Amino acid sequence: MMRHDMVYFLAAFLSSCILTVFSLRKSGRKLATVFAVLALLFSGWIVYEWGGHMLSVMSEFDGRRMYMGISKEGLPYAAGLKDDQTPTFWAFGRTILGLTDGSFSSYQRILSILNYGGLVVIAICVAAVSLYARKEGSISSLSVISLVGVYVAGLLPAFRNIEVGNTNIMVAALASIFVASVHLSRSNVGDVLGGIALGAAFMIKPYLLIVLVFVLFSSLTKKRLGHLAGLIIAGSLGFLTSLMARDIGLDTYIYFLTVARKLIYYHWSSHPLNLSLLRQAPVHMLGMASAVAILFFSIFAVLDSRKPGSTVLYWFFPALLPFPILWDAHLFGVFPAFLFFLSGKGESEQVIVWAVAVTLIYCSCVVTIPLMVNILLLGMWLWGIAGTRSYSFTRYTSGEGRGELLRLLGV
User: Fold this and answer.
1) Which family does the record claim for this protein (predicted)?
2) pLDDT (tens digit per residue) in 145-190
3) Is the torsion defined by CA of 160, 162, 166, 168 positive or negative?
4) Rounded to whole angstroms, how far apart are CA atoms 66 and 76?
5) In this structure, is residue 409 part of a structural domain?
6) Helix segments in 243-285, DSSP class H
7) In the prediction, which pLDDT does 320 show?
8) What pLDDT score does 48 carry?
9) Which of 117, 177, 217, 372 is disulfide-compatible with 363, CB 3.0–4.6 A?
10) Following DSSP, what letter does each residue of 143-166 receive, concatenated?
11) Which has the higher per-residue pLDDT, 39 or 315?
12) Is 373 inside any structural domain?
């Protein structure tokens, strides 16, 4: 990144932080609006300049490695390929590629259509949920700017996925359909379709495991069995139909769960751009550390799913934390949660979500501070946990609210 780009991004980051302070003061509305416009302009310029560079380069490093696994004969896994892709992804890729001339350009064209289509789906889902959340109240200019600001910040990890040819945009789109069904669906059919979408997202990227745990228990507790039925349908059909694809069988699944998973952990765990805190663990303990982290969040998910006011939304934030591999491209798989989370908040809280989103992108795409990335994701999760009983920002930062929050967390 050029030096002046760093300055622009830093200006956007600082403007959003200053905006947060003024937005919390009733007397600071004019200044809040000024800094909101500044933050949006600086963020927009970075996306235009740096994001445009990504799209012009189109290295497609991941895309080429995935194509090699899709197009090769026999087991799709091999050293140097995308060992972290699921057998269902390979089956889908081989089926789709079989309908074309089999060239990389054909795969590239399909991937581009799915990625840009995914961005449109996310925008539609977020807009629908936002309008529903605000249908009985007015939408302030600061709320609109905050929503656009989060959109703009999220374009950088989106363009990173397009640049390298990854599939996290598709995961985000499918997850957005599920979240939209949670907010908008009033029928079993809508719930089933949402569950199918989440199940498909999980089969592409299993890092949504924590989200899946919450949904499984929440569906039973809240009697929204349509989501559970959708997950079962997606899982069953995905598994059975994948076995019909070329050279995909039970041995492929066994290889993925045993050998392939270890290959990706050992190969990339020490990479300097890896944002995961688990990379600090010794290589031979990565599996154990990951299992402990998954167990920790799963226990919390089960307990939280039993609360009347709980929602799946904030469980997307810690979804990446239990895994020892985390890239900035992966962040887009959970980034739409910021947009949905913002729609249900007050004006001051919306600005805070925006500032957190900008900070997350800054610390993952620009200066790469793994500790800050993980703290921000964990902080958003805790904010969601604290809001299970409809806590407002001002309430749970008050003396009485802090006591209730501590009791809620069992401290």
Assistant:
1) Belongs to the glycosyltransferase 87 family.
2) 888 888 888 998 999 999 888 999 999 999 999 999 998 988 889 9
3) positive
4) 9
5) no
6) 250-255, 261-268
7) 94
8) 78
9) 372
10) HHHHHHHHHHHHHHHHHHHHHHT-
11) 315
12) no
Q: Would 296 be classed as within a structural domain?
A: yes
At 215-254, the pLDDT tens digits run 999 999 888 899 999 999 999 999 999 999 988 999 989 8
Confidence bin at 391 (pLDDT 50/70/90): very low
**Domain span holding position 53:** 2-368
Which residue, among 369, 195, 174, has the nearest Cα to 276 in the 3D structure? 369
* CA pair distance 63, 81, nearest whole angstrom: 10
Two tokens, residue 163: 């640049």
Q: What tens digit of pLDDT does each residue of 40-50 get?
A: 777 777 777 77
Q: Which of 117, 127, 175, 121 is nearest to 150 (CA)?
A: 127
Q: Is residue 208 over pLDDT 90?
A: yes
What is the total residue count of the chain?
A: 411
- How much of the chain is in helix, strand and coil states, percent to nearest 5? 75, 0, 25
Q: How far is CA 22 from CA 11, 353, 407, in A?
A: 16, 14, 31
Better-scored residue on pLDDT, 8 or 224: 224
CB 153 within 8 A of CB 361: yes
Q: What stretches of 134-224 show up as alpha helix (H) in DSSP?
A: 141-164, 168-184, 188-204, 209-221
CA nearest to 198, candidates 275, 97, 308, 313: 313
Which SS3 state, helix, strand or coil, does residue 273 take? coil
- What is the C-alpha separation between 198 and 174, in angstroms, rounded? 6
Pair of tokens at residue 225: 């069995």
- Who's near 26: CB < 8 A, 6+ residues apart? none
Other CB atoms within 10 Å distance of the CB of residue 314: 22
Q: How many Cα neighbours within 13 Å face the side chain of 267?
A: 13
Q: How many domains does the chain have?
A: 1
- DSSP 8-state code for residue 257: I
166: Cα within 13 Å, side-chain hemisphere: 22
User: What does the alpha-carbon distance between residue 302 and residue 327 come to, in Å, rounded to a whole number?
Assistant: 27
